[in-house]
Amino acid sequence: MSWGFLRDLLSGVNNYSTGIGRIWVAVVFIFRLLVYIVVAENIWKYEQDEFECNIKQPGCENVCFDHFFPISHIRLWALQLIMVSTPSLLVVFHVAYRENREKHHNQKLYRSPGQIDSGLLCTYLISLILKTGFEIVFLFLFYKLYNGFKVPRLVKCDVRPCPNTVDCYISKATEKMIFLYFLVATSCLCIVLNLSELSYLLFKYSIKCYLKRYVEKHQ
Length: 219
Hints:
three-stranded antiparallel beta sheet; 68% helix; elongated; Connexin_N; Connexin_N_sf; gap junction channel activity
């Protein structure tokens, strides 16, 4: 598939983000999307073809592969990238709504349609919460589906139609585990950035409201 739409989406959101949000976009684009396309996709491309078991029983190897890898790593990573990026569409849609509203009324209704304030701030905060939630859910899925963040060289399988316990071997297990750790680490970094940006915006908005009430009180 083409990842151009995701690149364009991230570039568009970058125009309305805070400094921390721009760092998040850079991390997603450079350390996740590019690494996924250039490296990780090639490592896991032939994972089923390179999965070997020491038995020729028809169907045994396929069943064992399905047992240990219920969902392909590469497809799960692709789904993760899409899900953590799409909440940013909320911000893009909100800005587009503001611009369309100004065009419809033929007058200036906002200081800047892309300025993070009032309603757009709520939309931005919701998008941050959704992105953080998706990251946590996918980390949990990786942990549960693959018995922790591990890629063993040897797995033992006794699932029917295998007649007995057979040994199955995963190719390039060390290399796959290194990139699995790398992608998990970047996912954790994105969670930290999202929470930092969320805290920053809430703190900034709280200070702004406090100063506004303070000025109104003394006036």
